[in-house]
Automatic annotation (TrEMBL):
Domain RNA polymerase sigma factor 70 region 4 type stretches: 88-139
Keyword field: DNA-binding, DNA-directed RNA polymerase, Sigma factor, Transcription, Transcription regulation
Organism: Emticicia aquatilis
GO molecular function, one term: sigma factor activity
UniProt name for this protein: RNA polymerase sigma factor
Source organism phylogeny: Bacteria, Pseudomonadati, Bacteroidota, Cytophagia, Cytophagales
Family from the record: Belongs to the sigma-70 factor family. ECF subfamily.
Length: 150
């Protein structure tokens, strides 16, 4: 979600601090995995919002350009390995709204069931399916437009 390795390290550190501080309050209403994943998700989204505010980017404006620059920098520094299509996919993902990118990552990369994602995000399964479908369509459009430009 945050692209940069240093930023991801910061988010992971904050996540585990919150897990440690809140462990005594864990009620076992959900699995420990989903509880931790929800904390990590919230920390990632909070980090992105904080970064937008620090860079004076309006919340309704997408900061995909900043994340795209970070991705380009990571590629040039060999932090990201992979073939050209993987890079194109990452660029397409950065153009999605945070919520759609989150749902896509959980479903596609983490191979999570909609019910698990719903428990983590507090969103209905129907809304998640719609978000995932929209994300896939936007990614397809972006990839097709990238192909057309070559």
């Amino acid at each position: 979600m945050v692209i940069d390795h240093d930023d991801a390290d910061d988010v992971v550190q904050e996540t585990f601090i919150k897990v440690w501080q809140g462990l005594q309050n864990f009620r076992s209403d959900s699995q420990l995995y989903t509880w931790i994943y929800r904390i990590a998700t919230n920390e990632s989204l909070n980090f992105l919002q904080k970064k937008r505010r620090q860079n004076h980017v309006p919340l309704e404006n997408d900061d995909s350009l900043d994340l795209l620059n970070t991705l380009e920098s990571s590629i040039s520094q060999d932090y990201i390995s992979g073939d050209e299509i993987q890079i194109k996919l990452q660029k397409a993902l950065l153009q999605l709204p945070d919520k759609q990118r989150l749902v896509f990552n959980m479903k596609y990369y983490d191979d999570m069931k909609y019910e698990e994602i719903a428990e983590i995000t507090g969103t209905s399964v129907g809304a998640l399916k719609a978000s995932y479908h929209l994300a896939v369509k936007k990614i397809e459009e972006t990839l097709n437009s990238q192909e057309a430009s070559f």
